[in-house]
Design a protein that fits this description.
Blueprint lengths: L1 H10 L7 H4 L2 H6 L19 E7 L11 E2 L4 E7 L4 E6 L2 E2 L6 E2 L3 E5 L11 E6 L2 E6 L1 E2 L5 E5 L9 E7 L14 E4 L2 E2 L1 E5 L3 E5 L8 E8 L5 E8 L14 E4 L4 E4 L15 E8 L5 E8 L12 E9 L10 E5 L7 E3 L1 H4 L9 E6 H4 L10 E8 L5 E14 L1
Parallel strand pairs: 2-10
Antiparallel strand pairs: 1-3, 3-7, 4-5, 4-8, 6-7, 8-9, 11-12, 12-16, 13-14, 13-17, 15-16, 17-18, 19-22, 20-21, 21-28, 22-27, 23-26, 23-28, 24-25, 24-27
């Protein structure tokens, strides 16, 4: 019969092969008898599973076994009797079986991304015939802490901490070394995701305090990241109304916390309010001058950021381009800030902290401590703009 089929194939060599033979031909090329062939993912288990190694999915020769891998990575488990998978666990966390493909001697699986307190470094592979265990380390992703969303949040307010891989370190859970303190006081965690944690600022926290985020790393070593909180000691102009100020446009006023009625303001010092319709390419300029306070090392401007808070009224986002900052009247070397990469920015009625490189605002230096210095702020929208935003608490801070 096989000979007859191949004769027919030769007869169709110069024509079109019928569709039903397209599926038959591979069977004859793989086995001398199609009835004896079973694909590797259909072979039944003859006993309990075994695992001999774990490899990268690209390591087709199985030449470099893996001893660890990060969560979310696909790996290839090699062994015997690996079909009919019923359960797969890494560190007691169930893997998603819909993301697996098994064969009798190997299985492509995806390591779960869920956090596990059970650091037993074990794979548990369960089939219809039993369970295999294998020592394997799921690498704990390195955690990083970046900044506070608002360094001047007031007691009782919610503040966000940004970073990465927060969800692997047990924040907000009992019996873990992870903690967040502000001014030495414990906080209440209200939200956590891989890159954001939100906490309530405790009552009684004082200005010039710190936020301390602590956790235990993959080696069991305690790590702590310290962030500034309400750093009034770093302010350039503690009272804008007393600084030498040159206003070239009347759309800017100096306000205090009490002047904001639409939201709660707790900066604790006066701020600038840009308000009203500004014509396209109209130039708004302000200059503030004082003696340089002793708040940084003037010779190391690259080690510092120029920092301030921004608040946009709801429905009035910042224009995407046109904000310039310069030191000591040098507009030829000014720094242009384009919020959200020029797309504009809405703080949704909340004060939000902005950090810009000090060295780029003052490329020729900021001057010595005690010398007269000037900070220039310029604003020129590229189209007619209905402004309603605030800047406040200008300061210099260590990166």
């Amino acid at each position: 019969m096989k000979m007859n089929i191949w004769n027919k194939v030769r007869g169709w060599a110069k024509g079109v092969i019928p569709f039903y033979l397209v599926t038959l031909l591979p069977l004859y090329s793989c086995s001398s008898d199609s009835n004896d062939y079973t694909s590797p993912d259909k072979i039944p288990n003859t006993g309990a599973p075994t695992i001999t190694g774990v490899y990268a999915t690209t390591d087709n020769a199985f030449s470099q076994p893996l001893t660890e891998a990060e969560p979310g990575r696909a790996v290839c488990i090699v062994g015997t009797n690996l079909n009919n998978l019923k359960s797969l666990k890494f560190n007691s966390v169930e893997a998603d079986l819909t993301l697996t493909y098994t064969m009798s001697t190997k299985a492509v699986v995806t390591i779960p991304t869920a956090y596990s307190h059970d650091r037993n470094n074990t794979i548990e592979y369960t089939t219809d015939m039993g369970t295999a265990t294998y020592h394997f380390v799921v690498a704990l992703p390195e955690m990083e802490v970046y900044n506070l969303s608002n360094e001047f949040a007031a007691p009782g307010q919610e503040v966000s901490i940004t970073g990465k891989n927060f969800d692997y370190y047990g924040f907000g859970e009992v019996d873990t070394p992870a903690s967040i303190k502000i001014g030495g006081l414990e906080t209440s965690l209200t939200f956590i995701s891989p890159d954001v944690m939100r906490v309530i600022v405790p009552q009684g926290v004082q200005d010039n305090s710190t936020v301390e985020v602590s956790w235990s790393d993959a080696n069991g070593t305690t790590q702590t990241r310290v962030l500034p909180f309400r750093p009034t000691a770093n302010l350039l102009f503690a009272d804008l109304s007393k600084a030498q100020c040159d206003r070239t446009d009347q759309c800017v006023t100096i306000e205090t916390d009490a002047d904001i009625t639409s939201t709660t303001s707790n900066l604790g010092s006066p701020h600038l309010h840009f308000y009203g319709r500004i014509q396209s390419y109209a130039w708004v300029e302000l200059a503030f001058a004082q003696n340089m306070p002793d708040i940084c090392d003037p010779a190391k401007a690259a080690d510092y950021n120029f920092v301030f808070e921004v608040l946009t009224a709801q429905g009035h986002p910042l224009a995407g381009k046109g904000y310039e900052f310069a030191w000591n009247w040098d507009w030829n070397n000014s720094y242009q800030w384009n919020p959200n990469d020029g797309k504009g920015w809405d703080t949704d009625g909340q004060w939000t902290t902005v950090r810009l490189p000090l060295a780029e605002i003052a490329p020729k230096g900021i001057g010595a401590i005690g010398e007269w210095m000037t900070l220039n702020i310029g604003f020129q929208p590229s189209e007619r703009y209905n402004a309603d935003f605030r800047f406040g608490n200008f300061r210099i801070q260590k990166k």
